[in-house]
Amino acid sequence: MAFEGLTERLQSALSGLRRKGKVSESDLRDTMREIRMALLEADVNFGVVKDFVRDVREKAAGEKVLEGLNPAQQIVKIVNDELTKMMGEQDVPLNQSPKIPTVIMMVGLQGAGKTTTAGKLALKLKNEKNARPLMIAADIYRPAAIDQLETLGQQIDVPVFSMGTDADPREIVRQGLIRANEIKADYVFIDAAGRLQIDEALMQELADIKDIAEPNEILLVVDAMTGQNATETAEGFNNRLGITGVVLTKLDGDTRGGAALSIRAVTQKPIKFVGQGEKMTDLDTFYPDRMASRILG
Ligand code: GDP
Questions:
Q1: Where would I find the SRP54-type proteins GTP-binding domain in this sequence (predicted)?
Q2: 120: Cβ below 6 Å to ligand 1?
């Protein structure tokens, strides 16, 4: 499970405090130093850690925690609250178009889990809202991507629009949207191309698709295992495309996960879903408070 190392380190830092009845300034300083190290080692972005530690200290001082009853317990609560704040405070639902279809564009690096997540989300909407989604296969560069989306579509009984690998992705999207209107699809997923690294040609193509499709939602899919690069990738996509939300995938893996948790603080865009396995049902709404509790153990 993700965050095991972080959970262990945080628990050990906080249990030191819990054993003390009274907590001194220097106890708090030591604890915060340990928490800072734990977050950095879990790959949380440096700037995000700095702000986090400052906010916890300020809150503890402001509320005169050290002079009050049960200082350790109150500090744990402050850490929990600040961790929740770092991840966005509240769950944020999918954007909806006032008239159908709601268009959702999936972007991210190759292998992050875009295609899989499009299928998972389509199935979730089908199951929970009785929705009629359509998925558009617009990744022509990875030939297997189209087959993969078609297989997924069959598996979850969701139609897939594709024009093979010879058509221009912009044209595929145009035609796909026409099809969506014909069949009165209420959600359209655009499975756009990814690359191993961000490059200008990819970004231009995605920007063009954005102009054509005017998506209600641009979901950046991020592999939680990517480490420090995750925040840079997120900034790159966000600066160029203006993402509207993030999906963290592979949180079921053995990952330090902290970089992914920094994305919210760095981009100011909400994490909306988390992928926790390879099955089509392994997608959950992201709740910052529950994730904070899970991390604190
Ligand atoms: P894309 O290139 O971004 O479209 O990535 P894919 O959707 O093809 O996913 C790449 C690999 O990651 C596939 O083997 C997926 O099964 C796997 N994957 C995607 N999401 C998750 C997840 O939440 N957990 C796990 N364990 N594997 C995932």
A1: 101-297
A2: no
